[in-house]
What we know:
Blueprint: H1 14-21, H2 24-27, H3 35-48, E1 52-56, H4 59-69, E2 78-81, H5 88-94, E3 99-102, E4 125-129, H6 140-150, E5 153-157, E6 165-166, E7 169-170, E8 177-181, E9 194-198, H7 202-210, H8 232-263, E10 269-271, E11 278-279, E12 285-289, H9 291-294, H10 298-307, H11 324-330, H12 336-344, E13 345-348, H13 356-367
Parallel strand pairs: 2-3, 2-4, 4-5, 5-8
Antiparallel strand pairs: 1-9, 6-7, 6-11, 8-9, 10-12, 12-13
Helix pairs in contact: 1-8, 3-8, 4-5, 8-13
The protein binds pyridoxal-5'-phosphate.
Amino acid sequence: MGRINVTRSSMPKYEEYVEEIKPIFDNYWLTNMGPIHEKLQVRLLEYLGVPQISLFSNGHLALEIAIHALGLHKDGGEVITTPFTFVSTANAIVRNGLKPVFCDIKEDDYTIDPAKIEALITDKTVAILPVHVYGNVCDVEAIKQIARKYGLKVIYDAAHAFGVKYKGIGIGNFGDASMFSFHATKVFNTIEGGAIAFRDASLAKMLHDYKNFGLDEQGDVYSFAGNAKMDEFRAAMGLCNLRYVDESIQDRKKVYERYMERLANIKGIKVNVTKENVEHNFSYFPVCFDKDVFGKSRDEVLFSLKEKDIFGRKYFYPVINEMRAYRETYGVNSTPIAKNISSNILCLPLFEGLGTDNVDKICNAVLE
Ligand SMILES: *Cc1c(COP(=O)(O)O)cnc(C)c1O
């Protein structure tokens, strides 16, 4: 491996994929909930251990449509979320005509701090949208209590959390809905793709119709919906990748453990610790640098890794409330912890097949 990127997509054997897409060339059914789509949907329901699931062309549109299907898009309400996430989370809120209200995060696992949520609730608040950042499980119990007390919906952005379990329960079982991303860079991919896991069966029809122009069975249209369907070729990629996802996570775990051996005890470096009761998916390896103790800043480390053909990623940087589209309207810097972490965090390469020798090479480069 010459150049080491921060991630590399998991892929099946070429022959296996070709075998999987063969039926498409016999039945000419390319998209619109075809047989491969239906098969993948059932397999994912089983794998994730969730009551209901609906597949989408990508995770972002899945999230946007879930917000709409839960009926939250009315009256310009507010949604409490985290600024320490991929911009998709907040864009999905704004694109529904809602206002994101940014809540600060916890120092230890970078997820939304439930102790700071209540102070942000107003009579306009309609929902909480927390993110299981890096596959770290949010404080689901505390969030549930707050949501109950104030009658709010909870939608989890579980884009990083495919295969994660909390107390033995699949992560897609918490809240009113959870969004999974099957983007090429995620633990499980369908090239591009995503899903909503949910409990309330009455959402199923809406999610189905809203990803297909708001068409009903009679061909009439009852909503100004767009198009977010998953096609057969991507579903086939999903079926192939799903066969190996457990192996893939085990391989990631080896990489994670080697990183931990090498970096967990270094002064000035904070690693991501897997919590009790959590079955993790080892999706990312974020490290936080304390320049005063470590001697080098995040940006200096990133630069010197690059010189050795190793590519980390400032993920997430900047925080969303400081992005250009956001800072004027939402840019009050009310989330100092998120801002501080965002300035010091670096995701080191972690993917299936990276191997412990490469981890050593990366760690040596970090520590030099
Ligand atoms: C990847 C990601 C998304 C968007 O998913 P896509 O499938 O790329 O549309 C949303 N939120 C988070 C936190 C993500 O990492």
